[in-house]
Amino acid sequence: MYGIEPEEYLQMHRNQQGRCAICGEKPTTKRGLHLDHCHKTGNVRGLLCHGCNTGIGSFGDDPELLEKALDYLKET
After folding, report:
1. What is the pLDDT along the chain (76 residues), one digit of tens a residue?
2. How many CB atoms sit inside 10 A of residue 47's CB?
């Protein structure tokens, strides 16, 4: 898994108390937490629920685009 051992995943899971690094929720599906990584560098960032993982993936991991989306949401 992206250059980490199963034990490292389990340690991350313990550190995050089984919760998503973005929304803080515990997953309610069998998918569990996804190992999030930077698609450019391959560096592991944390564990995310399916919704948060696909959400940032849909924005192409682009912080500027995510900021624009945040601004949009704040304006409406």
Report:
1. 567 899 999 999 999 999 999 999 999 888 899 999 988 888 899 999 999 999 999 999 899 999 999 999 999 8
2. 23
